[in-house]
Design goal:
Number of helices: 20
Helix content: 25-40%
Oligomer: single chain
Largest sheet: 8 strands, mixed
Strand order of the largest sheet: 3-5-1-12-9-10-11-20
Structural class: alpha+beta
Number of strands: 30
Radius of gyration: 28 Å
Distance between the termini: 68 Å
Shape: globular
Bound molecules: ligand MTE, hypoxanthine, dioxothiomolybdenum(VI) ion
Length: 794
Amino acid sequence: MTRSPDQPGPLGAPGPHESAARHVTGLARYVDDLPEPRGLLHGYVVGSPHAHARIVRAEPGDALAAPGCAAVLFARDVPGENQVGAVVHDEPLLAEGEVHAEGQVIALVLADSWDAARRAASRLDLAFDPLPALLDLPEAIARGSFLTGPHVMARGDVEAALAAADLVLEGEVESGGQDHFYLETHATLAVPEEGGTLTLQSSTQHPSEVQAKVAEVLGIARHRVVVEVPRLGGGFGGKETQAATFACLAALGARRTGRPVKVWLNRDQDMVLTGRRHPFLTRYRAGFDRDGRLLGLDARVYADGGWASDLSRAICDRALFHLDNAYHVPTLRFEGRVVRTHHASNTAFRGFGGPQGMLVIETVIERAAARLGLDPLDVRHRNLYGDPPRDVTPYGQEVGRLPLGRMLEELAASSGYARRRSAIDDWNRGSVVSKRGIAFQPVKFGISFTATFLNQAGALVLVYADGSVQLNHGGTEMGQGLHTKMLAVCAHEIGVPVSAIRAMTTSTGKVPNTSATAASSGSDLNGQAVKEACAGIRERMRGVAAGLLGLDAEDAAALRFEDGRVHLPGRPGVEVPFARVASAAWLQQVSLAQAGFYRTPGLHYDAAAGRGHPFYYFACGCAVTEVEVSGLTGETRVLRADLLHDVGASLAPGIDLGQVEGAFVQGLGWLTTEELVWDRDGRLLTHSPSTYKIPAIGDVPRDFRVTLLPRSAQEGTIHGSKAVGEPPFMLAISVVSAIRHAVAAFGPAGVDVPLRIPCTPEAVLRAIESVRAAPHAVEADSAVLQPQAGARAG
Ligand code: MTE
Ligand code: HPA
Ligand code: MOS
């Protein structure tokens, strides 16, 4: 079978994304590119100008007199439930009485064009009585402003472990928010159809939830609403729940006016109105022995949820599930709580709390290594999960046989870590202005939705009588290559070339009750459902093919479906084209359509006990990263990054490499360049790319070496593959560790590097100033080195 270079590959073969050519030629259609139906109205979303205020008046004013304006909608216009909260019902679609964050939606203005709607919006009659706003995370904690009660995991006697430790560290780790900055902002087109039904084209990761919320807001049953997703121009978690708001607004507009309505946000609106990655604050105490073995960790974790719950509870849970990262923590007490502030409601973002949790233990390990005069790699190595009893997570799940030890050794060797580290230390002694740093970092990430019931997926495969195939599955394509992988699975399973299969627009009318495409599990879950659907059709076609070839049952069972033909191995000439079998099946009245379903087996978690088996398996990776830091400007450059990542037996290695690279660079952005700034009244100042700096091509490591771990097929997954979307994001924590190594070189040995996240040039410069000013002995305020080890590490 020959394949043109722009065709996606068969299972496990290198090849491009199934839409690559359309992405780069502009032929790929996103919601806002779809042909506009006759009579279309454009919706302008009006958000609160205040972080916290009482709404004194919300009236159309003379907006309706503005050119082209057709309608203005407020909370009172919602026929059903004015509610879009994904888990907790604490998020009105349109504000009533009070607003709790800048950008909280108050009104929708509908007009003939987006510009006309925006102009009309400036003529609304809105009046507010501003109220005090809680904007600072520590202050909100101190005031007891919480969205959830504590979630606790505990093991052993952590107080006794700390009391017996050679080194006790105490401190805080803070991490900041992050805007998703998908290239496509939120968009939905809602078209009213016959008999009170509605079809939506939405840029959502979660079409079934959009369907459910639209039905609730309109007060109709779900079967009247079809949600379709052509593709997303990136989601990164930002369209898991929050697309529902804009879809519901479009649906409401369509219902009230009887006309099609498109709701679209410009970049500034998208950045202000929608939530981001959760900022976290963690207060910890950690105990180590003199060899750097972690003995106990007590951590109180706070996530800034913003004004409404959204997915914050699950995100804070995932932070707790990843406080251990790749390390065995013998005694522990972890407590997580979501804090309520008057910021936009924060939401899912690649890693889903995992990065914020891991950053804590990585920071703790770095500090311990510095204080004990050890190479952080050795401390990390020493603490890796190992054989029983060092193989049980804080929540009681055995980690199984992780490849981390082997990966650490392979990557340390292939990257020349030890040699480069000592060369860097030499270089630093001779360099006054700039310093370099290098760091190793492992990642272990739990795969599965932690809300167990969400681990399910469906598919619907249709074979036509000419042998061509339509593939439907419940997942959404957001650039991550899910369709490319599902095409490969389908092609393999029914034995036709990828070019004979069409991946259909995701639709709630084809696969019902789906989960979000999230938690990196899109291909794991949908892949199994696709496989099941295909197998059903294949087995019916087997009988038809055996009839055409005149085979007995034994030979029929040996028939192979490959490359568009059905053949008997070892019997040349005993074969028939797939298309002929399909048309024969049709003539013989054999069904050529099949739904598939999958649920992940064996998962459970008891949040009250803090114990269970929430993850099907773990995805692992390692990084060795080298940076150079300027002592004059605080600017950082990643000189080289070597990543070794475990994707199991890859379904599509080109896609997986892209995911690893992209995730690392996105993580690097979170940790180094992306800084959110609000004014003192809680208004976001960094709401456009002129003030909010996502990483650009110049921030990509100069020397970037990404390898997929060979010989690593995972048991019990689709063709031995592993989830890849989120785990490599956290490999970027190695950048922070490398910066810390470089900054430390500006001061005396053993000094704590107080590095603020994100490591912007300003933050790095401040850290350099602080280590330069450090006395040659270690400060005793935040770290206690107990007497027996004092002489050694002091
Ligand atoms: N890659 C691209 N190009 N665009 C995206 O929006 N989202 C990430 C990741 N990779 C994303 C991406 C996130 S947050 C998740 S959970 C997974 O893709 C979701 O897709 P999957 O489950 O199919 O891997
Ligand atoms: N990960 C990502 N998204 C989710 C999860 C999760 O564990 N739970 C609910 N949505
Ligand atoms: Mo990803 S944060 O689970 O959409």
